[in-house]
Every structure is written in C-alpha cells, then in structure tokens.
Design a protein that fits this description.
Elements: E1 2-6, E2 9-18, E3 23-32, E4 39-45, H1 48-53, H2 56-65, E5 72-77, H3 83-86, H4 102-120, E6 125-134, H5 136-147, E7 154-158, H6 176-179, H7 181-187, E8 196-204, H8 217-232, E9 240-249, H9 252-267
Parallel strand pairs: 4-5, 4-6, 6-7, 7-8, 8-9
Antiparallel strand pairs: 1-2, 2-3, 3-5
C-alpha cells in the first residue's frame, strides 16, 4: 500500500486480491486529508488509471478546497489485461464476444470491492454510491448502475461505448433499433426517480456515421440512450445532464475537461 497527500487529498494505492477476477486489482482511493464529516459520497471509476493520469487528486482537491463540491471518497479501479472481457453488459457479450466476463466484474464490484470499502471506512456513512467510466468503462458503469438501482444513485458516462450491439453494423440485417443492447435494456426497464445520469460526448470522438445523418455514431448512440430514458420519465436538466464538447476527442485530455463538470453537477455544495 502506498499513501501520499496532495492538495488536501489523501491518495492511497492498494492491491485488492479478487477471487472473482482471479487477479489483483489496483485501486486508488482519493479522500479529503482533513475530513471532519462522518458522511461522504462514494464515487467509483472504471479505468482508474485514466483519472490517475489526468491528475485527479489536484482536480478534486481544488473543488473541495474551494468548497465547490461536498466531500467525496473516490475510488479509481484500474483495468487489467482482460479489460475487453470484464467491461461490457452483464446480459450479453457483444457480437465479437467482448464483455464475456462482465458478470464476474459485477461480482467483484458488489461482493469484493464495496464490502472492502465499507469495512475499511466503517466509521463513515456513505449517503450515496455513484459509478462512472470512460469509453467501454462508461458502458460498464451504466450497466451496473441500471441493474443495481438499490445500490447506486448516479452514473457518469464519458464517450460511452453505447454502440454495444448483438450484430455487426456491416451485417445486412443490422438494425440499430433492435441490435443495440443498452438501448433495448433501458426500453424494457422502468422509471426510478432516485436515479440520475450524466453523459458526455465529444464531436471528435470518432468519424463513423453509419446512418449517414452527418452526426458521428457516438453522439447518435448517446442521444438515443437519453431518448430511451426520457421515454421512461427521466427529464434532461432535472434527472439527466448532457455535455457535448466541440473539441472533445476519445482521450484522457478531453475527459479531464468534462470531469469537473460532472463533479459539480452531481455534488455541488449548496
């Protein structure tokens, strides 16, 4: 275990053995160094190595020091060599078999990581638990939150892989209305007023435009997910926030620009 304090944030790095994933998972814990509150929010991040690379300790340290957001314990979960298998949707792998270990990753989160956090910080009360991620990690976070609404209250999806589909888009019978798995899952679900969503997409995330409408697929897929949520009863501006970055790319630098917006949206100090 390594511990360091930077800009008022205590950063601890641990190796958590996972029976479900059959590997040690590197975890970064970001918490207020001089916390005086016994109640905090809990925010998990897939691809924890990405927030480490963007200097997350300084980012959240500034927001806490300026009293912009309420106290948070943030947990960066580093991905492993099987990232393309562990991240995905629990219900089904995609057409290439990616996400085949998503059920095991869920087991790690619910049965290993969260109990470890609650045991380690037994003196604290977490008033909510949120999950966030980037790209395929964003899809994974959304899927876990959607399927465990008794555990999570918020989700942040940055350049999410919401294209996740059961058929290759090049197949003759591909139909985006029926073969995009996340859209189908939301369509079959129910409204929950306690659940809130944050979506970010960059206008330079990619160049693909499968339906020829002059809008890149990643933006189409994100907006279509939001439409499915609105059809269930969620309202943009109330339960849901969408951030579209004109210069946003599929990279850490762009997500670093969007992340403070997400933090202020979800945990702004009143």
């Amino acid at each position: 275990m390594q511990t360091e304090v930077s800009t008022g944030i205590m950063v601890e790095t641990i190796e958590l053995p996972s029976e479900a994933l059959q590997r040690n998972v590197t975890i970064n814990l970001y918490g207020p160094a001089n916390n005086t509150s016994d109640t905090l929010g809990l925010l998990l991040f897939n691809d924890g190595q990405d927030i480490e690379a963007m200097g997350f300790d300084k980012m959240i340290g500034y927001l806490l020091q300026t009293e912009t957001i309420t106290p948070l314990l943030c947990v960066g979960i580093h991905s492993g060599e099987d990232r393309l298998l562990e991240y995905g949707m629990i219900s089904s792998p995609d057409f290439k078999g990616r996400g085949a270990k998503a059920g095991l990753y869920r087991q790690f989160i619910l049965e290993e990581l969260l109990p470890y956090i609650h045991s380690r910080y037994s003196g604290l009360v977490f008033n909510e638990t949120a999950f966030s991620g980037f790209s395929l990690g964003g899809l994974s976070a959304l899927d876990l939150v959607w399927n465990h609404q008794d555990v999570f209250t918020k989700v942040g999806v940055f350049s999410g892989s919401l294209w996740w589909r059961s058929k290759d888009r090049k197949d003759r019978d591909f139909n985006e209305a029926t073969h995009r798995l996340m859209h189908n899952q939301i369509r079959q679900g129910k409204y929950n007023p306690k659940l809130k969503f944050f979506f970010e997409a960059g206008e330079l995330d990619e160049t693909e435009d499968r339906n020829g409408n002059n809008v890149i697929d990643s933006i189409d897929d994100t907006i279509d997910v939001m439409r499915e949520l609105m059809a269930k009863g969620w309202l943009e501006g109330k339960d849901m926030r969408y951030l579209q970055l004109p210069d946003g790319k599929h990279d850490i630098r762009s997500w670093a620009k969007a992340l403070p917006v997400f933090l202020k949206w979800g945990w702004r100090k009143k």
